[in-house]
Structures are given as C-alpha cells and as structure tokens.
Amino acid sequence: MTQRSRRIAAANRRFALAQERAVWTDLAAAEAGRGADGLRGKLRGAAAVARRLTEQAGPEGGDGPPPLRAIPRARDAHEYADWAAVTAGARAPLVAAAPDRSQLHLAFVILPFGYGSGGHEVVFRTVAQLEAAGHTCSLWFDDPFGFEPMPASVIRRMIKDQFGIVVEAPLHRGLDDWFGADVAIATGWQTVWPLMRLEGCVARAYLVNDDEPAFYAESIESRLALATYDEDLYRITGTRWLLDRIVDRHGGVGGSFDYAISPSYHPRPVQREPATVVLYARTVTPRRAAGLGVLALDELINRRGYDLRVVMFGDTHPLPAPFAYEFAGLVHPDRLAWLYATATVGVALSMTNASLVAQDMGACGLPSVELADGAAGTTYASDGPVELAPFDAGGLADAIARLLDDPDLRERRGQAGIALGRSRTWDRTAGQIIEQLNLALDHAQR
Fold first, then answer.
1. What is the CATH code for 276-423?
2. What's the confidence (pLDDT) of residue 36?
3. What is the DSSP string of 184-234?
4. Strand partners, 171
5. Whether this model's pTM surpasses 0.90
C-alpha cells in the first residue's frame, strides 16, 4: 500500500467512526427538523431514536424454517386475469348484425380518473356529443385494483364537477351487468382485456390517447400494454403520429382525430410580461420531461445571463430548481388562460404523443417550445404555434432563446396558435371520433 493509499484509508476509517458516533444525534436533529421547533421537535427526534433502537432491522435471524403468516383470500381473481384468459383464447365472438347507424348504442369502458385527465375528458365530451346526435351511450367503470371506493352515482357526479360535462349515460361500476353494445370502446390498455371477453358486441374499438407501454419500465404492465396493440381492435388515436407508430409496429387498422382546444383558452385583454417563461412541470408524468425544461432554463439564466421570470405549474409540489421561480400548482383552465395570456414563451414538452398544453398555450397567443422527436414534429406545421427543439438541454435553450430574442417570430407563432384555437372545437373532434366509430362497424362487418 502506498503512502497516499494509507492516508486515504485512515481518513476513511476516521470519517466512518465519526458517522457511527453521530448517527443518533443526526437522526434526532433530522426528525426534529421535520416537525415543529422547540420542545415538540425535540420530543419527536427522541422518539425517532427510540424507534430505531427497538425496531427489527431486516429479516429475523436464527436457525430453522422461517415463521409463516396465514393470508386470507382477498379477491375472486387477479387484476390481470382477463389478460391471461384472452391470451389463452377466451375472446368473445362479435355479433353479426347491421345496427341502425342513426341510433347506435356505444359503450365506453373507463378507468378511475382524477382532475385534469385529458384522456377522460375526450371520452366524456365525445359521449355528450354522441348523445346530442341521437345515440345512446353507457359508461362502464373498471377498477380491478380498487383505486376508487366511491359508489357509481358519486363517480358519475364527478364527471360534472371535475370536467364541467353533463352526460345522460348511466355509469356502471364493474362489468357484471353488461348487456352488449353496437360498439364497445376500450379507453386505456387495462380496459382492453376485459373488453375482449364481453359478449354481444357488433364491433370493438380502442380509443388510444398515448403510447401507453412507454409509461412503464420493463414490467408486466409494459408487456400487457404493448400486447393490446396486437389485438383485433379498430384503433382511434389522438394524432396521426400515434396511429402510424402503432400500425407500423403491430399492423392492424384505424384512424385518428385532432384534439380539441377548450373554449377557456383564448386571448385575454392584458399586456404580456417581458421575459416571462411558463414551464409545464408535471413531474408525476415522466414523459413530460420537466427536468429537461429546468436544465434548459438553468442554461439560459445561470450561464447565458438571461434575466427571466419563470413560472411553473401542473403539479401539486414545486420542483427544486437552480434558480428562483414562481409556482402556480394545479390551475383551472379559466385561470390558466390568464397566465398564458401574460407570458412571453411557453415550454410544454412531451416525449410521446403531443402535449395538449402546447396547443392550449397557442390558443391564448402564447408561442411555445416542444420536442421534435415526439408527436409534435409531425402534428404541428412548420409555421404553426410551436418552436421545435431537440432532446438536448442546450438545443432546448436555443429554441426558447429564439422566441425570446425574436418578437416577429413570437408574433407569427402566437397568431398561428390563436387561429388553431378557433378551428379545434369539440364539435369537430367529436365528429371525427363518430366517423371513426362508424368505420369500426364497417371493419367488423367485413
């Protein structure tokens, strides 16, 4: 051992011994810091030390067989039992029938949802438009993991409260009361597998809002989501990019639709703030690449010297960043539109299907930056509301800087966004989906 190696080893041993001596003091201080100051914080820290001293760390030692616990039966079937049954051949045959195309019954199988779910909003607004056109719809709430404990009546009311949409369709909790449909529609990969086993369907369709296998690391979920694209379902995708991606890799048939822009998003009678960048920082959705946006803004602010006001939104918790910023959290569309109307540049990234946030920003006259290697590269025209950027912190910073530095470019892209907002109505989107549902019937009857 060299002299340098001996010095490093000795320093390592001293540091380790010091850490061993300090562990309980440090733990008590850390626990105290998480609680209130003063006596309450000290008591909390002392209690944490006591817990660490008395709790079993890791598996119990000893010799002989391990102790066992009896676990009672918790459910009738595994959450993915439908996938196992379908892959074993248990697919329900389609019914040979020619339904009245002017009065169809359309059944949507949906998953649990929360505020702001874009995919669910597409479903509920489409249902409302279908009902207005004279069709009958039903909603079937599939929740094999038990995420939503509320009864069906409360879940149905949540559609109105969270999305501002009134539907006539009843909501069935589970699929036990299934009575058939002219077209049965899956709305997420989890719903494909039970839908394939449902009797009494003239046609089956799959409303695909994103490349869902990309949501997961390598897992049973990623495999099961990917396998849905190999089923004989007519695909109705948000954006042509997504349809081409699925068909090129898995074959099959389908069509696409354009996402509508809520009427809430339109210009407001206010002046834009100078050098204000609004970042869609939804960290709970990894494909939104919020960290890349932060890296690009770090480059602009801390290395290129841009004096920017940064506003982040889209999540319940602020994202730590190497610069100061303002945080809006989750924002209702009517209020979010005001933020878009006062900003200079928006950043709304998506690594898969195009983010709806970019087109919402554009409808308020706010030009935005999106990634070129997802759907945005083919979804938006070169003279549209979006400046495209590579998946690179420096390249993304360059794209933001182009908009910040060029008022004419901002104006052109902002006006293109306003024009897009006027054309992308829910009537138009629902009409496209209704057309695709009729094509799904044509496909099933061949």
1. 3.40.50.2000
2. 53
3. EEE-SHHHHHHHTT-SSEEEEEEEE-S-GGGGSSSSHHHHHHHHGGGSS-E
4. 139
5. no
